[in-house]
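User:
Care to share a sequence and structure tokens?

Assistant:
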Amino acid sequence: MRDGLTKKPIPGASLLVAETKAGARADSAGVITLTHPPGALTLYVSAVGYFRGRETVVLDFNKRVEYFLQPRSTDLEEVDVRATRKDKNIKDVQMGQILISMPELKRMPVVLGEPDILKALTLQSGVTTAGEGAGGFNVRGGRADQNLVLMDGAPLFNTSHLLGFYTNINPDMVQDVSLNKGAFSAQYGGRVSSLLLMSTRNGNKDGWRVSGGVSPVSARVVVDGPISKKLTLLAGGRVAFPSYLLQLFPSASVKNSRAFFYDGNIKLTYTPDERNTISLSAYRSQDNFRFPGDTLYGWHSNVVTGRWSYLIRPGLQFNLSGLYSGYFLNVDGVAPTLNFRFRSHIEQKEGKADVFYTLNKSFKVQVGVNAILYGVQTGAIQPTGDNSSINARQVNPERGREIGSYINTEWELTPNITLMAGLRYSAFALLGPQTVYNYAENLPISPETVTDSVTYGSGKVAQTYGGFEPRLALRVQVAKNTAVKASAGRTRQYLNLISNTTAITPLDFWKLSDRYLPPQIADQVSLGVFQNLQDNAYEISVEGYYKRLQNQIDYRYGANLILNPKLETALLHAAGRAYGVEFGISKNTGRLTGQFNYTYARSLIAIQTPFDQLRINGGEYYPSYIDRPHTLNMQARWGMSHNWTFSTNFVYYTGVPATYPDGQYTYNGDVVQDYSRRNADRIPDYHRLDVAFSKDTRFVKSQKRYGIWTLGIYNVYAHKNPYSIYFTRYNQRTEAYRLSVFGTMIPSIAYNFYF
């Protein structure tokens, strides 16, 4: 399935056999595979934004046909914002899924005009963030490190530029974005909260094209086209000098800081024949940030992915891929007597093989295996000057091995009932060299209770974990436009991001599971009702979920995390539970389109320890750092005229938990604040209104060379949303201060071009 103008693949396109009502959808490469008995068939092919096609074929053997769909000009009275077929939310067995339309993303109001995939996700039900300008995102009460973020199948361990203000993914490179909040396919594992899939585009086969954009703080460009008849190239880059953004901060230390970042992608796609496709993609992002004075932060990500796809026969496909993903942090101190470099990193090397088999129109099965090698450095520091007073030291590096296998089936029992069932097994081993400390029995673990240690040589197994991860989903279409869906699943995670802040920061580091840090396990069940109204012009959904989490972590008071060789002495083990209800309604057609969603959700944890002195809040459940009971998002888009569009967002959510002092006492002449219950208070609620106007320079929608101007205002009424509340002593009194990231409205202008 290809675009009739650009000749690019059309992912998500649909095919329907008129005689039997059998159907199928195109994969990310635009390929539709359908098994059908021989005979004369009438085929209907369609995709959102294209004219419908009809063709009669005689099927008497394996046949491959290319269809070219002509783009449909978007009429002012009929604007469809969806990137998928109209009845997807009724017909698909998957629930808790969010799809992002890339064209619509570039018209949304954003900070300083830079389109942002992850910021768009936080406008959806069940997805929140730790605060304005915070890195990462939280899904259904899960931490940011519990999201499996895959780009062309490779994990990204950091998704932020500029300490969280931007996402480090160039939207011009991306073809599809989908977020799965509930039980997802057994093909995927390794995280306990959600699955975010992003696939980059393939290069254009029929000519060279250039696209990009400029804004006050950044510029980006993408070039794609054919190197030969069988080889295409897609390459893009983005660079930013966001000092202008830093001037908006009230803090003098931030206002006088300096920052720079860039990211780049390249992808080669080779198609030697109709059955084989080989692709090689690479990605790199780099950030540098310097506060006034003596500290420079630098972090970067490197990703390489190779993939071979072989169509054995219609309905049977084999995929083989290998990947590398690494995230590296450096902190350089340049004070005269404190010259140092601190570093940490995580690296993942993975190989995987998958087989996809379509037995008939009603039954599909996937099987596969994967193997992962982890390399982790939690921290190392060394002096960098002759006069430095810093002593070199490091925590021993960690190595781990994870092996997984799975089977996943999708079975259409009747036209109105679909079942997805899958089973995954994963096994993890922590490898040497490794030193494991033993502690005195019947006493809290602490540096003072170490009794001895055991050393494991290089490659020796120091600890193992493993288990099954069942996945189940059911769809029952109870009426023509209504479906009830349910899902349940278990996931395991052998990685933890160690951080005692609510938002991701450069000093956070990854750690593998060990004897004292067992893998996280999550069990989630969900139930939802989905309905389309007025010929699918409106979509309504209500989803409820309950999630139980094992082996969560929190931190002891005064925990020392950096360069701690006995990190387990700073951690507390916890059980978690999250539950909520998500309501959404969207209008998809007409001059005025948009959506409204409201979520009630809770995220709670309870410390599990037999020692009273280590219990937090008496061992009772208390709000986690990401607990936001109420979240409300509204988006609207209005086609004002032939080329002008108005967009707006409104966001409201409950403030995150905080711990305020509830008393004070004097110790050795000093006044000390007393904190009794953790996360018993909250910072004030957050709310914000954004607007944007977009001007499309095309005279007709089929025009190839054009631009889109976007003028926007972020935080229209200049609300000083608090990021945190902190306390200081002033004139013998304890006073509270509010820290706001953006305390004013932020105008922006951006230009996106295509030719």
